[in-house]
Design goal:
about 15% strand, transferase, ATP-binding, globular, nucleotidyltransferase, about 300 residues, 6-stranded mixed sheet, alpha/beta, Rossmann-like_a/b/a_fold
Length: about 300
């Protein structure tokens, strides 16, 4: 009798788990949507969705919650990648919500549109009838995200209550919801930042160039290097700008997303930096998550994450 041994790498196991989640949600829900920002996590999710349904096309649209304060390199990548795949792009615009009076823009030096994403996101979910939204959150990023289930329940107001989450045994997910409720689904829950970069290398995925070291005009605030080129970060007169070799570990609202000093211009060099660091990407690069230890959990309860 011939015996075959199948040895799966860690990436193979993670990939299989994520593909199972995509297929399960697509089978159980009527109108899923994939949240896509053009960042590395959503780029990996898009590849996993491709594999989950290949050779058929991805059977749901992608949605970008657009703050209007974006890095141009990321927006160029987003539009080009969506066109290549032929998927429908839904844009939930923070600027439209401001113009219509649905939200009020913050003022002051530390003003950010990050929290303002909640209203246009929930409006878009209601308008299009989405009942499941795939997100790229990982449990290694931050304490509040470590509390999430893979299928994370949101009530009729779009709010997350950590005490009202369903138990998940192994890979059994509770997908029952009533009218007006929806779930957030996190296929990358068990991945780490290093896993993401290893997968990008294995799959030869293209990333926006700001993920690699480049010379950029920045200024320092509270230990973060914020972008001085787009003008979204409200630089004060006492915050001089300077040029530095930097890269971004995560992308988001340019007003509060910091860069890190780096000379890593290749995947191998970036992976070596990530393997050596002991600071999470959000702890090192997101100004809004430094306001308090509970900052992200507060936004999750309001309905964004």
């Amino acid at each position: 009798m011939q015996r075959c041994d199948y040895l799966l790498s860690q990436l193979d196991v993670l990939e299989a788990e994520s593909i199972h989640i995509f297929r399960e949600v697509a089978a159980e829900f009527e109108r899923p949507v994939l949240l896509f920002s053009g960042g590395k996590d959503s780029i990996v999710m898009l590849r996993l969705a491709q594999k989950a349904f290949w050779p058929a096309p991805i059977p749901f649209p992608v949605m970008h919650v657009d703050t209007g304060h974006n890095f141009p390199e990321v927006m160029e990548y987003r539009d080009r990648r969506v066109a290549e795949l032929g998927v429908r792009l839904v844009v939930a615009s923070v600027q439209d919500a401001i113009d219509s009076g649905r939200v009020v823009e913050q003022k002051g030096r530390r003003a950010s549109r990050n929290r303002l994403q909640i209203t246009p996101l929930l409006d878009a979910i209601e308008e299009h009838g989405f009942d499941a939204a795939f997100g790229g959150a990982r449990r290694d990023e931050e304490k509040a995200r470590a509390k999430e289930r893979v299928v994370s329940f949101r009530d009729e107001f779009g709010q997350w209550d950590p005490k009202n989450q369903r138990p998940e045994l192994w890979n059994l997910f509770n997908t029952r919801i009533t009218q007006g409720e929806h779930v957030r689904v996190f296929p990358l829950s068990n991945w780490t930042e290093l896993d993401i970069w290893d997968y990008v290398r294995r799959e030869e995925l293209e990333l926006p160039p700001i993920y690699f070291a480049h010379t950029r005009r920045v200024f320092e605030r509270d230990g973060l290097l914020l972008d001085a080129e787009t003008g979204f970060a409200n630089r004060g007169d006492d915050e001089p700008e300077f040029e530095a070799s930097v890269r971004y570990r995560t992308v988001g609202d340019a007003s509060c997303t910091g860069a890190v000093k780096s000379t890593a211009v290749s995947l191998e060099e970036v992976i070596a930096e990530i393997a050596a660091t002991r600071i999470t990407e959000r702890g090192q690069t997101r100004a809004d998550d430094r306001t308090s230890e509970a900052a992200m959990e507060d936004r999750k309860k309001e309905g964004y994450f």
